[in-house]
């Protein structure tokens, strides 16, 4: 059963006008490589729950399984851009402190070092053996432009 | 034509290597630096950060745009177009470039942030994956092939981000991609069709949901192997890792019989230009195929004898 929360619905729709165009045809789900392997992840259902402002929308761990392959965006006949809807919902979860710890840590690594991989001396030794320049942290600038307060 | 002339004629690009290649697959950076200038593509290194990737975007799209704008502005400052080695980075930067070129008020907002580090986004650069550039100058590629890779049977995996969103990538048909295959055929190799060609490699799930990612790898490898492929060819460092290191993990967990090595496209270009397997970094890959290695070594010998 879906419990509808109107305030949540309003909040979600504020940034996701496109959801209203969804007519539940399931093209996104039929195209989704994750659903093919794991039926618990279903973009069509995530979209309808978000549209209703269903309570369990925000508790769902399913969002984070999306591979960001963009296939659903490409095929959706209504221009809903399901991938982008999921992105915005994830952004909302992050802003409410509900994102998984790995995502928060991965983001922190990029802002502090400039890279999405940790820079280790082993990496730099390998690079050196191929006559490539060593990697150095260049996060300082990012802090200045990302963190505004 | 002498070397100096060629250097002058060469168009210069800002090389966007990306974190995955820099930190996890430096042999791909090595081969790109060797091969691209020989194809009249000049490259320059700038102080780029992570593009940033889709995981970063999933936390906060605004910051994603700010960081991408910084990378774009760096290239603009040097008056250079960006040349990507990774489809993911290329997609991020193309999308950010398009958004900021179109939306003047958003651009002004983002420029306030960039102003703090002395940069401005003006909208004067372009971003392309190197395959796009190679496909445009296919004649140069053909001229440089000295050891055609005859008889090598390859499963082409274009992956997702070089193709989609097609509105942004504008490279190939996402339902039936053929351009990477064309580039592979230019080197003399044979491409084989396999049923799972357009299935995503599943890389981003490997860390968090290994079970799903492993089953995707198994299906890709089985499909390509049973169709007669001897290796994969990819344009993407994430797909490369998925079919290389992660293939061995999946094979151990799911106990499937087959395995296929993987080439980054520029490694094949290097081989076709006369570099050996070691020089194109093949031995840094974890999945090996002694039979294929012998076949490639033999090609070099045969071609030399025929000359
Ligand atoms: S493909 Fe588009 S319209 Fe169809 S269910 Fe998915 S989001 Fe809705
Ligand atoms: S972008 Fe995500 S939801 Fe859409 S098809 Fe790919 S994995 Fe599925």
Summarize the structure.
Chain A has nine helices and no strands. With 149 residues, chain A is mainly alpha-helical. Chain B has two domains: 3-130, Glutathione S-transferase Yfyf (Class Pi), Chain A, domain 2, CATH 1.20.1050; 146-306, Rossmann fold, CATH 3.40.50.11810.
Distance between the termini of chain B: 21 Å
Estimate the global geometry of chain B from the Cα principal axes.
Answer: globular
Class of the largest domain in chain B, according to the CATH hierarchy?
Alpha Beta
CATH topology of the largest domain in chain B: Rossmann fold
Which value, in Å, is the CA radius of gyration of chain B?
Answer: 20 Å
Named CATH architecture of the largest domain in chain B: 3-Layer(aba) Sandwich
Main sheet summary of chain B: 4 strands, parallel
Return the CATH architecture of the largest domain in chain A: Orthogonal Bundle
The whole-number mean of residue pLDDT values of chain A reads 90
Q: Biggest interface: chains and residue counts? A: A-B, 48 and 51 residues
Bound molecules: iron/sulfur cluster
Please, how many domains of chain B?
2
Sheet with most strands of chain A? none
What is the SS-derived class of chain B? alpha/beta
Shape annotation of chain A: elongated
Tell me the structural class of chain A.
mainly alpha
This entry's quaternary arrangement is: heterodimer
